[in-house]
Amino acid sequence: MIVELGHFALTLALALSLVQFILPLWGALANDEPLMNVAGPAALGTFAAVAFAFLALVHAYVTSDFSVLNVVENSHTLKPTLYKISGVWGNHEGSMLLWVFILALFAALVATARHTLPLRLRALTLSVQALIAAAFLLFLLVSSNPFTRVNPAPFEGQDLNPILQDIGLAIHPPLLYIGYVGISISFSFAAAALIEGRIDALWARAVRPWTLTAWVFLTLGIAMGSYWAYYELGWGGWWFWDPVENASFMPWLAATALLHSTVVMEKRDALKVWTILLAIVGFSLSLLGTFLVRSGVLTSVHTFATDPARGAFILGILVFFIGGAFALFAWRAPLLRHGGLFAPVSREGALVLNNLFLATACATVFIGTLYPLALESLTGEKISVGAPYFEATFLPIMLPLLFLIPIGQTLAWKRGELLGAAQRLMGAFALAIAAGLAVIAITEGGPVLAIVSIGLGFFIIFGAVSDTITRCWPKGAQLGVVWRRAVGLPRSAWGTTLAHAGVGVVVIGIAASAWSTEDITLVKPGGRVQVGPYSLRLDGVFPRAFGNYREEVARFMVSHHGRDIGALEASKRLYTTRGMPTTEAGIMTIGLGQLYVSLGDNEADGAIGLRAYWKPYVTLIWLGSIIMAAGGLLSLTDRRIRVGVPRRRIHVAAVPAE
Amino acid sequence: MVLWLLFASMMGAAILAVLWPLSRPLAAGGPSTGEKSFVKDQIREIERDVARGFLSPADKDVAIAEVGRRFLRTVAGGPAKSPAQGELALRRRRAASAVALSMIPLVSLAFYSLRGSPHLPAAPLSGRLSDSAQMDLQQAVARIEAHLANAPDDGRGWTILAPIYVRMGRVDDAVKAYSASLRLEGDNAARRADLGEAQVLNSGGLVTADALENFKAALAQEPRLAKARYYVALAAEQDGRVDEALRLFRALRGDAGKDEPWVPTVDTHIARLARNAPADAIARLPDAERNEAIRGMVAGLAARLEAEGGRIDEWVRLVRSQIVLGARAEALSALSKARDRFKDDKAALAELEPLAEALSRPSGEQKP
User: Fold this and answer.
1) Is B27 at the interface with chain A, CB within 8 A?
2) Is the pLDDT of residue B367 over 50?
3) Are A228 and A268 members of one domain?
4) Which whole number is the average pLDDT over A454-472?
5) Which residues of chain B are within 8 Å of residue A653 when distances are taken between CB atoms?
6) A272-301 burial, b if ≥16 CB within 10 A, otherwise e?
7) Are residues A214 and A348 in the same domain?
8) Is B58 on the interface with A (CB under 8 A)?
9) pLDDT average, residue stretch A421-441
10) What is d(CA A486, CA A471) in angstroms, rounded to the nearest whole number?
11) Helices within A144-166 (DSSP H only)
12) What is the C-alpha separation between B126 and B133, in angstroms, rounded?
């Protein structure tokens, strides 16, 4: 009965979101307050209905209710309870339900944030958000219904794809979806501003926390996905420029640009049209990602079922929203009031540069991802655009951008002074050079690009820190004053420092991969393998059975300069129900580096094939991402309003339209 | 009944959520709360900045004036509020209520009726396992498996395990268990048929040669065994021997009792085969009538291709049929038409080539 109630709740959610689309839009156009007021309760109602449906499906999974087709196809009574729950979104239908759930959650949050938003903006935003929700609910109910029943119920389920039976499935999709779907709110705000025909600092202030939330979760989701692929697939890499990865990376680049342009808009009332465009582009890219991943155009672990009808449906949604939004943009954007002017050398000038670089980087990823697909569908020719393309195009754009981070952060608003900024950064730059030299000394050389990148990473970190120091420490100030200023510094400034330092940490982690070592070899029990500074001794290979899989475990003893430092286990699993093998890499974190062992085939003479890697400082890649996200969160807690302080002499530039 | 009451109450709650704001009395006019609180927040922020020393007191007044200017611009730029009372507003609200009242039930019930199964009970794991035994089936299976690992010659164990494997979807293991049961417990018709069925499941529904052999062996011992007869008929259907399959299924249906559970399945097969069997019906006609019928079909095909064009394989079939029927002149004419039609298509012309060759040979060889 609960399953049917969940199904009905989903249809009710569709009905409510249609009401939520029509009445507030009508109310906003007729300027009728009661009609606009419908948006809030309708959004909360939609959320309650979708949440109920979602919980009903979770309940069916937890109790192994095999009268539900979706549960039969993706669950098994022997699966641990955690994977029964995470299995809810480990399939096409359930993941789309999670998508709609988060969509409705964001709408409900906007509905409850009543006092920070003007009524009309809120009504229009919720109306647009409801249209997106309605489209996806329709998709769910018509072509991907998670509540389809089977009668009679089979006795046992078909189990979940073994690669997905991992703690990663419990974390990665929800994080990524909050990020992906969170951008929809920025999109809805942009569409609302276009419909209303006006946009101001209040709008920027309203959008900022949502974009920031989406960005924080997108950052964490991508980092988590990268780490999961790293330890589960057994290839030893953490980023493959795979189309599925790019599909999440493009919205991230757009969201990063949006984040920075919103700051300019809030503070200086400028870059309005561009910000609107970025919000539209950001959500368009996340819809594109959904289409690429869910339609079966790409084959990967994310593609749960290839069904042309579903692909066509998502393509329809994609074309409708992207096309509609750009049409709206072309029609209404010229009506928007343009904002203030500013000097090219200034904080806002640097942020424009940042946006240009990010947009270009996003475009190169876009081309590298879609060109092979377009070529294949037009001519049938298969080409592979891999790391070499992205290294040749993406890196040259990113390196100058990274170099500009500390400089932009040091420039003042409105009118900066390049020389002053350079002087203030001298210390950071000198420290970074020293760090680069130290690396050369310790490693006795290495690839030039890697050494430069390490210096760059340190430059970003020191630059971020030095900017904060100069802001709290006026020349000759007493310690008490410094403390007061540091405490008084807005949390968003601390967030900026933290997030930029996180970028520096990621850059160092990536650059350090130039020093990783790899060995592919055969080893017999008792034999040794040397990787980097560590030595692995194969102690033995033994079988083990657990729940729904059997595995063959190889146990190694790791030693450093003849001293044992711990055991490491790598295994190959066979999931009995699906008869599918998986490789579980053995990973030992030593300091900031990782020892990574992945098993290959067994040989007749008892030897096992293995790939062993020593990856120094590799964890910095993910730690840096977490630092970035933490910076975003810190900034999110700052509900401060940025007020530009107009000075009399440039007053005209600040308010040109009057 | 309970379910429908719950549906009704959920729907009621949804409708109320929408009607509630429509029925509320209105607040007074003027700029909305959001705009006012935004201005207050901005002024408070400026004062805080002054207190922290980020802003000089002289700048404070300028900044506050700037905030005020922005606010005035916002209020002036916004559209005037339409009157909350009055005929138009009232009519608008009534229309909105009507939309909510009609749309919510209509949309939700329409979409629910597409895929909903209100009559189906849930089948959670706890309900599916028998309560009296309170035994974890998986554990029982594991125990029997462990026992059989030590005593693989215990036929009774295999016999118990085999059908459980089938229900658990482990058909591969089921085939092994049925084979062992057959070997250890002795040959009989039912065991043969069960083994065959497991083999069919294991090959994804295809009646393989091994499976067919088992069914035939079962029928040799017990000619009326329904399961074996069903699969033999299915084998005929899968081999394309439509007529034989239809005959076997009909015979099986004729012998069935009134409430055998497999009767609907057999009926489905019969209906499908009877639909697809006109060619077969023609084959049973007396010679003269049969040729007449075939000529009629070929003439029909010729007329259709003449009128509509058709694909190359249809033309090839037409020419070949006419050759088989001995209608040489008509075949030649059809061939030249086909060549004319596909003159730009090299692949199609190549397909026509062997037919042209056959027609150029003396007529004696073309007899069927």
Assistant:
1) yes
2) no
3) yes
4) 89
5) none
6) bbbbbbbbbbbbbbbbbbbbbbbbbbbeee
7) yes
8) no
9) 87
10) 8
11) none
12) 12
A608-615/A593-602 β-pairing: antiparallel
Residue A470 sits at the chain B interface (C-beta within 8 Å)? no
Distance of CA A119 to the CA centre of its chain: 31
- Supply the ipTM of this predicted assembly: 0.83
Tokens (6 digits) for B209: 């040669």
Q: Say how many C-beta atoms besides its own lie within 10 A of residue A609's C-beta.
A: 14
Dihedral sign from CA coordinates of A261, A209, A252, A104: negative
Residue recorded with tokens 């420039």: A411
What's the length of chain A?
A: 658
- A131 and A9: one domain? yes
Residues of B in contact with A40 (CB under 8 A): 21
**A residues 559-588 closer than 8 Å to B (CB):** 577
In a domain, A541, yes or no: yes
Give the amino acid at A153: A
Task: For residue A403, tell me if it sits in a domain.
Answer: no
Q: Which domain holds residue A150?
A: 1-165
Q: Which two tokens stand for residue A200?
A: 């101001």
For the cut 70, the answer to whether the pLDDT of residue B346 exceeds it is yes
The 3-class SS string of A273-336 reads HHHHHHHHHHHHHHHHHHHHHHCCCCCCCCCCCCCHHHHHHHHHHHHHHHHHHHHHHHHHHHHC
Domain identity same for A633 and A592? no
A200 contacts B108? CB cut-off 8 A? no
CA separation for the pair B197, B234 (Å, rounded): 12
Contact A185, A214 (CB under 8 A): yes
Bridge partner residues of A557 (DSSP): A537, A567
CB neighbours of A578 closer than 8 A, spacing ≥ 6? A158, A159, A161, A162
Tokens describing residue A104:
């409705």
Name chain A contacts of B59, Cβ cutoff 8 Å.
645, 647
On whether both A508 and A560 belong to a single domain, the answer is no
Q: Where are the beta strands (DSSP E) in A69-151?
A: none
Q: Which of A219, A59, A31, A29 is nearest to A633 (CA)?
A: A219
Please, which residues 100-129 of chain B have a Cβ atom closer than 8 Å to chain A?
A: 100, 103-112, 114-118, 120-126, 128
pLDDT of residue B26: 58
Q: Write out residues 99-128 of A within 8 Å (CB-CB) of B.
A: 114-122
Distance CA B84, CA B86 (A): 7
Q: What is the spatial distance between Cα A551 and Cα A571, in angstroms, rounded to a whole number?
A: 6
pLDDT in tens, A373-385: 888 878 878 777 7
pLDDT given for residue A462 in this prediction: 93
Structural domains counted in chain A:
4
Nearest C-alpha in A relative to B121: A1
User: Which CATH number is B210-284 given?
Assistant: 1.25.40
Helices B137-150 and B155-168 sit at what angle, rounded to 10 degrees?
140
Structural domain includes residue A136: yes
Is there a contact between B7 and A120 if contact means CB atoms under 8 Å apart?
no
Task: Decide if A332 is inside a domain.
Answer: yes
pTM (2 d.p.): 0.76
Nearest to A321 by CA among A293, A281, A359: A281
Q: Which DSSP letter does residue A91 get?
A: S
**Distance between CA atoms of residues B133 and B131, nearest Å:** 6
Same domain, A361 and A431: no
Distance CA(A548)–CA(B138), nearest Å, equals: 11
Looking at A142, A165, A188, the residue that finishes a domain is A165
Q: d(Cα B263, Cα B257) in Å, to the nearest integer?
A: 9
Chain B contact for A8, CB < 8 A?
A: yes
- What span, in angstroms and rounded, lies between the C-alpha atoms of B274 and B248? 13
pLDDT on residue B305: 80
Do A226 and A331 sit in the same domain of this protein?
yes
Residues A170, A23, single domain; the answer is no
